[in-house]
Task: structure prediction
Amino acid sequence: MNIILLGPPGSGKGTQAAKISEMYDIPAISTGDMLRESIAAGTELGRQAESFMSIGELVPDEVVINIVRERLKEKDCEKGVILDGFPRSIHQAEELDNILEEMGKRIDVVLNISVEDEEIIRRLSRRRVCSRCHNVYHLDFKPTEKQGVCDACGADVVQRADDNEDTVKHRLEVYRKQSEPLIGYYLKRDVMKDVPGDEPIDKVMETVSHLIEAS
Ligand code: AP5
Ligand code: MG
Ligand code: ZN
Result:
């Protein structure tokens, strides 16, 4: 089962990807998390990516496509994957089609999560993420059991560098311009399903799992 999660920043892609991953025992691949790992490791790739991510711009297509191409070759991807935050441009989507075709695979379902802009700002301004395992929290909607500490691994939870209001607004503009056209791209294929994302986390998960079962 190969699943793509589409949706604006803060729509809940990471939150739902973690749940789907657990439920279907397939890896969730987040290009955002992979790029943040490169930044934390201080690699050349990380330095390059940081200059784009810190201002809410997309990292160049070829950089991200190469990361995903390599990741998809790993053994744990054989049963399927959840792609969170990739593709994010028509060029990335076309390249993904080529990569999957070479591997004899295809996309089974594209889940398009939609959320109002006001709610996005509310979510991202109070989001916290684990500095080690990338678990996602929210101070009001999904708090950690112990303040400031990840439930899963015990590391500190932090605010993402791009979660300030100005950068979030720019990320939303970038999403509308460069990523939203993907909805039309996948609609032509009959794999696109709409997920109303303004509901509570478990309700969204219910919709998501029904749509996956039906695909
Ligand atoms: P990335 O890390 O992918 O960020 P994003 O797309 O902006 O999405 P977010 O991670 O902010 O939101 P999400 O949808 O995962 O929501 P979450 O589940 O956390 O990308 C970051 C940057 O990396 C990009 O700007 C770009 O520079 C670069 N990049 C990444 N991929 C790239 C690519 N393919 N090409 C080029 N560049 C790329 O939820 C948000 C908050 O809301 C959390 O606090 C959560 O607890 C809460 N929440 C979730 N669901 C609910 C709910 N139903 N009700 C209430 N609260 C909820
Ligand atoms: Mg995310
Ligand atoms: Zn953790």
